[in-house]
Write a structure and sequence with these properties.
It is a single chain. The protein is an all-alpha fold. It folds into 2 domains: 13-61; 62-206, no CATH class. It is built from 9 helices and no strands. Helix 6 packs parallel to helix 9 (180-208). The longest helix has 29 residues, at 4-32.
Length: 209
């Protein structure tokens, strides 16, 4: 007579195997109904998530691993806030597709996140802090911040594009999101970050003297 524990263990593995098989079948059926463009979007989402989840393994082979390990918690905030800011503005864009202001709001919210939370949620903001400040961050830190932001922004844009392709097939998802207003807001964020970080550096320099 077999022990009860072994019987239960075998039954659990069989249930897991059944779920995996059916999940694979459903996934194949779902993907077969998608267009090539939608397949690419799903592949990008899965690939980005895999890179994020395996970031420790990826960076452990690079020289910048020590820097990454020290600021890993900060980078998680960058990624999360970047994703939330962009996705939130894209949702507003989905509600008001003819409006231009969600694209402007995206940059302003990213700047506000830095003012209020000290989280870098915009590549232009990070570049402004790097080029405008002295001893604010090293080149390696800048690259890591940019990579975290790009990860969050990519997930937001690609995820929204996938939803939009089902909701409004054949239409461009960012027709009014990117425009002159959005470009001006992006430039303004860069210039403001440069100006503010230089003022902070001057204040620190004055106090030291």
């Amino acid at each position: 007579m077999l022990p009860i524990g072994k019987v239960r263990s075998g039954k659990d593995w069989m249930e897991i195997f059944t779920v995996v098989v059916w999940g694979t079948v459903i996934l194949i059926m779902f993907l077969s109904k998608l267009k090539a463009f939608q397949d690419c979007l799903i592949a990008i989402i899965i690939g980005t998530i895999m890179l994020i989840m395996n970031a420790d393994v990826f960076f452990s082979r690079l020289r910048m691993y020590k820097v990454y390990f020290v600021i890993k918690g900060v980078l998680k905030w960058d990624l999360g806030v970047s994703f939330a800011v962009v996705l939130g503005c894209l949702i507003l864009h989905g509600i008001w597709p003819e409006a231009y202001w969600p694209g402007v709001l995206m940059h302003l919210l990213a700047f506000g996140a830095w003012i209020g939370l000290k989280v870098q949620a915009s590549p232009l903001l990070t570049l402004g802090l790097y080029f405008g400040g002295r001893n604010q961050m090293t080149r390696t830190q800048m690259i890591l911040h940019l990579m975290a932001q790009v990860g969050g922004i990519t997930l937001a844009f690609v995820g929204f594009s996938l939803w939009y392709s089902f909701k409004y097939p054949g239409e461009g998802p960012f027709h009014h999101f990117f425009g002159i207003g959005s470009a001006c807001a992006a430039i303004a964020v860069f210039l403001l970050s440069v100006a503010m970080i230089r003022v902070q550096d001057e204040d620190k320099g004055g106090k030291e003297h």
